[in-house]
């Protein structure tokens, strides 16, 4: 993050494909078209759009915050200070090769309606590049284990977030908007790093418990970044959802933890799980 007066303002390192900003850039740029017409909804200061403009694409931004919109106007072709609905009302005939929605849909009351509006303004063969935070990240699980849900100025529990998404929720959102996922990435962040960077103040015991008991691959998924296209085949909505849920999530290898190769550590984890299973059987007899 930069020291700008704009709240959401970052420096994008295009060589680091472990960040959502870089992934959004590459998902769009890898379309391979020259001089694309691109719309970025929720462009903030234009820090992502500027990387695409530098490649010769014509990027229009839409931004509610007037301070951020003013900053974006210095790096993008055109900036609309307002929301997507008012922009498309003023420009009903515009069509775009790509529409970027980076960490913006979670701030909306009705993200499906906004996505559907965007889909209607894509050219044939156009695509939407979308990033969303993952609320099932291990840091949120650990906080809930402590009986807390503490909003913050930034991060997964940003106090301006109105909607929260798991992997399944992302698939449902895009399917409801009539979008078929082509590629899906997850950015990864360790639980302790999330706690430190976003002031979550998690207890080590909570982090260790979540890491030990989690039995899914999404524990360290911090953000989902998708490239999706309008589904024109007319398949049923439930069939589209099934297809989107089946798209594999591309993840970096999970970082090794201290003691991962220790036989004593593995034994302790096995004993902890065995003890918990025994308690569960005794306490919750009759439950499936």
From TrEMBL:
Annotated GO MF terms: methyltransferase activity
Gene3D superfamilies: Vaccinia Virus protein VP39
Keywords from the UniProt entry: Methyltransferase, Transferase
Record GO biological process: methylation
InterPro entries listed in its UniProt record: SAM-dependent_MTases_sf (IPR029063)
Pfam families listed in its UniProt record: Methyltransf_23
Coiled-coil spans in chain: none
Database matches in PANTHER family: TRANS-ACONITATE 2-METHYLTRANSFERASE-RELATED (PTHR43861)
UniProt-recorded name of the protein: Methyltransferase family protein
Origin species: Luteimonas cucumeris
């Amino acid at each position: 993050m930069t020291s700008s007066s704009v709240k959401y303002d970052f420096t994008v390192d295009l060589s680091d494909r472990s960040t959502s900003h870089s992934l959004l850039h590459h998902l769009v740029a890898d379309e391979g078209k020259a001089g694309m017409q691109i719309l970025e909804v929720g462009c903030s200061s234009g820090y992502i759009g500027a990387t695409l403009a530098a490649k010769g694409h014509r990027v229009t931004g839409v931004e509610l915050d007037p301070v951020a919109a003013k900053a974006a106007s210095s790096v993008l072709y055109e900036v609309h200070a307002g929301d997507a609905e008012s922009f498309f009302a003023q420009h009903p005939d515009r069509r775009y090769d790509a529409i970027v929605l980076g960490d913006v849909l979670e701030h909306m009351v009705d993200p499906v309606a906004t996505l559907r509006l965007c889909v209607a303004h894509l050219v044939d063969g156009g695509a939407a590049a979308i990033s969303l935070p993952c609320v099932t990240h291990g840091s949120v699980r650990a906080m809930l284990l402590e009986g807390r849900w503490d909003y913050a100025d930034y991060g997964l529990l940003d106090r301006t977030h109105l909607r929260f998404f798991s992997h399944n929720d992302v698939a449902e959102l895009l399917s409801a908007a009539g979008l078929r996922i082509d590629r899906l990435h997850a950015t990864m962040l360790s639980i302790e790093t999330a706690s430190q960077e976003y002031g979550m103040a998690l207890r080590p015991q909570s982090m260790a418990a979540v890491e030990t008991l989690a039995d899914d691959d999404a524990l360290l998924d911090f953000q989902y970044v998708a490239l999706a296209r309008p589904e024109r085949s007319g398949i049923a909505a439930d069939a589209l959802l099934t297809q989107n849920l089946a798209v594999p999530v591309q993840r970096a290898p999970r970082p090794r933890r201290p003691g991962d190769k220790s036989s004593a550590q593995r034994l302790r984890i096995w004993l902890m799980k065995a003890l918990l299973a025994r308690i569960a059987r005794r306490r919750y007899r009759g439950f499936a």
